[in-house]
Amino acid sequence: MTQYILIALILVAALGYVARQVYRAFSHGGDPCHGCSGCTMHQQLKDRKDKTCQEKTLNKKEKIVQHS
Question: Are 24 and 34 within 8 A, CB to CB?
């Protein structure tokens, strides 16, 4: 009987861990710091990401204009 209780506890812990990781993946999907905003690197990564996205958008628009 104790074996079944031990197996059940392990399964509950494993499912809880998986659920937590899935939640964290979806709630902080685009954030490389996963919600932490306590360091200067977080702001630098955020600024860099914004610039990169803008550059990609501008490059795509320029290519479309050149082909037209």
Answer: yes
User: Residues 9-55: pLDDT tens digits?
Assistant: 999 999 999 999 888 888 877 666 666 666 777 677 667 755 545 45
Phi, psi of 34 (to 5 degrees): 55, 45
31 backbone φψ class: left, alpha, beta (φ>0; ψ -120 to 50) = beta
3-state secondary structure of 37: coil
Using DSSP's 3-state secondary structure scheme, residue 35 falls into coil
Predicted local confidence at residue 63, as pLDDT: 57
Distance of CA 26 to the CA centre of its chain: 7
**b (16+ CB within 10 A) / e for 11-24:** eeeeeeeeeeeeee
The H-or-E segment that residue 3 falls in is helix 2-27
